[in-house]
Structures are given as C-alpha cells and as structure tokens.
From TrEMBL:
One Gene Ontology molecular-function label: phosphotransferase activity, for other substituted phosphate groups
Keyword tags: Membrane, Transferase, Transmembrane, Transmembrane helix
UniProt family annotation: Belongs to the bacterial sugar transferase family.
Pfam families for this protein: Bac_transf, CoA_binding_3
Membrane protein topology class: Multi-pass membrane protein
Localization annotation: Membrane
Major location (coarse): membrane
Protein name per Swiss-Prot or TrEMBL: Polyprenyl glycosylphosphotransferase
Residue ranges occupied by any Bacterial sugar transferase domain in the UniProt entry: 320-506
Amino acid sequence: MPILSDGQRPEFDPELGVIVPPANGMPRSVFARSEAPRATWHRPYVAWLVLLDLLAALAAGSTAIGLFEKADAGFRDDPALGGQLSVFLLVANIGVPVGWVLLLWSCGAYRRRALGIGTEELTRVLRATLAMAATVSFLAFAFKKDLSRMTVVVVIIAMLVYTLLGRFVARLLLHRRRRSGKRASQRMLLVGTISDAMAVYSVATRNPAAGLRPVAIHLPAYPRADEKVEAPIPVYVGWELVPLVREIAADTIAVCGPASLESYELRKLAWQLEGTGLDLVVVPQVTDVTGPRIHVRPVEGLPLLNVEEPTISGLALLTKGLLDRTCALLGLLLMSPFLIAVAVAIRLTDGGPAIFRQTRIGYQGKAFRVWKFRTMYVDAEQRLEALREQNESDGLLFKIKDDPRITRIGRWLRARSVDELPQLVNVLMGQMSLVGPRPLPTEDDAYQGDVRRRLLVRPGITGLWQVSGRSDLSWEEAVRLDLYYVDNWSLAYDLGILWRTVSVVLASRGAY
C-alpha cells in the first residue's frame, strides 16, 4: 500500500474492496501542482534506434557505392569521375545519414507513442522516405545537379529496407523485454467504472508487447454499500488523480468510457497534467471506430465527432480482390513442392484423404466449400458428439486444447497454420480473401444480430482475430474484433494484419 508524502497511509475499506484517501484528504485545488514520474524507459531505446538508422543510411550509401564502382570500373583513372565519387562519398557518409535521422525525427518515428507498434513505425518511416525523395529532388533542382536517378533510387530503397530491418529487430527485443515484465511500458491508472476499466485492462494485458501496463483503477464514485469491488489490481476511490498517479508511480492516466469523468472534469484534468510529463488517454464513447471514418468538426468551440459509414466498395475493394488472386496464384506456384510434401505426409499417417472440405458461410451469406489440410482422423465427425461436453469455447466455436481427434502431424500443421494454406484455392476462386473474418462452420440461420455484419466482407485466411489471440479469445471478443475489421477496413490495414500474422504464426500463439 502506498505511503503519502506526509507519512500517512491511505485506508483500505474491506467491505467495499477499495483504497480511500486519509481523512484530511489530498489537495483538491486545480492549481495544486504535483510532481509526477516521467516515463524514461524509451530514451535508451530511442538512442539505439538513432544509431541503427544511421547505420542503415551508411549501409545504403555503401550499397550505392558498390553499384557505382561496378558501373564505372575505370573511374579511378579519370579525374572527373574520381572527383564525382569524392563528392558522392562525402554526401553518402555524412549528409544522407544526418538528413535521414532528421527526417525520421520530423515524421515522428522516434516518438514514444509510436515505439513498438509495427504499423505505426512503418507508416512514419514510409513518410520519411517520401520526404527524403522530395528533398533530394528539390536540392538537385535548386543547385542544378545532374544526379544519377538510378543511384538515388538505390540509396532510398536500400535505406528504407535497412531501416525497417533494423527496427524490426529492435522491436522484437523490445517486445521480449515487455513480456518479461521489465519496465519498458506505460504504467496506466485506469479511471472509470469497474466494468469499463476491466474491459480496457483485459485488452491491455492480453498483449503485453503493446506496452500498456495497468497498475491501478480509480472509480469516479463510491460503490454501493452492498457492492463488493474485486479486481486483479488495486482499486482507489475519492482521490485526486495527479497525486494518486505520483503515489503509485504511474505515467499515464486512461479515462475509460463516457461515464468516467464529466466534460469539465476531463478538461480540468488536462490542465493539471500540463508540465507533469504524464500522458492522458481517453477511450471514446464511439468504440471500435478509427481511421478515416472519424473527423473532428469544431463548431463555436464545441468539437463534434463525425463518424462516417464504412466503405466496403469502390476502387480499393477492386484492388484488394486483384491482389488477393495474384498473391494466391503466386503462393500456390511457389509453395507447390511443400504443399505436395505435406499432402503425402498426411496420406502416410492413416491412409485417409489429405484435403478436408467443409461447407461454410461466406460473403453475403453464400455457402461454399472451404479447403484445408486434414488434421483430424477420418472419423472425427462421428466422434464429435461424444466430446460436446468438453467444449472449452463458447458461441459458435468448438475448441478443445487437447482434442483426441487431432493426428500427430495435424498438431504440427495447426500450430504453424500450415493447414490453412490450401485455402489459397478458395482465394483464387474469389470465395475468400487473404485477410478477413474467418469462415465459420455453421448454417446461415445461426448468425443472429450483429454477427451477420461479418458477412459484408469475404472471409479470410487470416484476420484481426488471428493476430490478436486466435483460439485463446472468447467468442464475444472474436466477434468484436471481426466487426472492428469490417467497420474499419482498408488496404493499409490488411497489409498490417499480414505483417503481424508472420510473427504470430512463428510464435505459434493461440493455435490448437
């Protein structure tokens, strides 16, 4: 239990299960300033990122120099070419690395909120790459320099590839550090009702690599006399938020839900946080809606949040279909030897068929036959009824961690998601997509209410559900993630999910 600066201890109410301030209270004036802990874990990490980005730029220059030497093998005997190379070496070894780091800094690639988030880092590095190309073009035009376009392209592309590779390795180490429990995360005080706070707590703790670590909950009002508050972290009530954050050594206040604070209280809290180094995070009332669908429109000082309806059509959807079929065709051609080897191994296991096909519901409620490598014994369907009572999932799912119907090779295939690869045939036929909600083995009339929104897009081989926990998620959480995808779909979002799928599959998380 924390001790206040004056030596007093807060009181624990055993009947309510909350921690209350001492009788004399905490300062409640909006002008009462309180020192708060500043998050410093990111500083050495940013220093390493700067070093990695400098090395990436130097490596890109070396790559271009190597190509330059091959293209002009006789440059050493030519004074003009030798002078040109000297200038190029100076720019490549000093100007480009310094300029690259400055552009990354200006594009927010070193900001604490973006660290460890792959899609956010990718976006900011790509933005810096475009800025670098524009800067080089402007300088060449301003100083009337005739640069080799091929050399510029090589430097920029190589710099992008090396930077992303270096940050990928750094991010893996950061995620490992976060999962180990070491302090490389934001310590959050959750402010809101116990239900809202626990909803945020479950999301934050399910993925420690995200860098959000709830350490306490503060209730906006005292619980009822007959209400017992139970939570895995300490629960406070009646405290002034900034002093409380100081006492529990947090660095972020997360306001969970619309009922947590009144608008004027939220504004006063933002004022109190000025100069403290604390972050303020607000979970909006309009949940599961992000990106280009949200626009803020101020009217006479009142910010209005415009939420546009999701767009699941047009040129972007046409591009998605084209990319899906192209990637599916290339994938089947390139992986055909491996797929044949897997099919032969399954046949040798028990002599049954290598491919399992099952009727599932897809786009706009149309039934289709999904293709998978068979991972269960041939009599699995007949043994299903005897195992119904052992179901560890809910909703429309049937999952058992140690399902006796799964073959030995089937467990290996499931752990690495190899059993899903034949669905590239479904993608090539236009029945599925690379990214989307998973097709479920159920009849169309089993989809009730909001669940039917999953049918607005084609089902996918992978999706937000798979990269957020897979079989470890409840049915309710899986549906929420699928609906989130439907409501916020974009091509960039698909690419981000595909990128995250690689790490999830390699780690075999939540697969059984």
